[in-house]
Recover the amino acids of this structure.
């Protein structure tokens, strides 16, 4: 069960990383597009200039929205990484506790077997 939790946490972390990378790529593309939109050299009349200015304003708003989404994605990624680390710690802790319990059970069984009379130990050994 702990392995399943770790695998699930790894999958969620990978998805969060992909989302962050996609947002970063979109932000970079939008920045290039916005930089190109501020060059008004090819505008021949006022209507074209107005349209280009409106496009530039929309690109600036979109850039702000992508930056806000990128901040949220990074916060989510940090949270997912903490959960992934916690899943690893839980799995390791559980594994160690289980190993200790098995070793304790084996020691207890060995002590009980050592306390049995020799005749009973031999009879029990032949039955197996």
């Amino acid at each position: 069960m702990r392995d399943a939790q770790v695998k699930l946490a790894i999958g969620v972390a990978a998805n969060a990383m992909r989302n962050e990378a996609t947002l970063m790529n979109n932000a970079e593309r939008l920045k290039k597009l916005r930089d190109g939109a501020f060059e008004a050299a090819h505008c021949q009349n006022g209507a074209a200039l107005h349209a280009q200015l409106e496009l530039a304003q929309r690109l600036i708003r979109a850039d702000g929205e992508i930056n806000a989404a990128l901040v949220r994605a990074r916060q989510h990624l940090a949270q997912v990484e903490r959960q992934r680390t916690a899943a690893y710690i839980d799995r390791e802790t559980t594994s160690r506790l289980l190993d200790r319990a098995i070793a304790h059970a084996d020691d207890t069984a060995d002590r009980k077997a050592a306390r049995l009379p020799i005749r009973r130990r031999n009879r029990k050994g032949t039955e197996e």
Notes: Residues 47 and 128 are 97 Å apart (CA to CA).
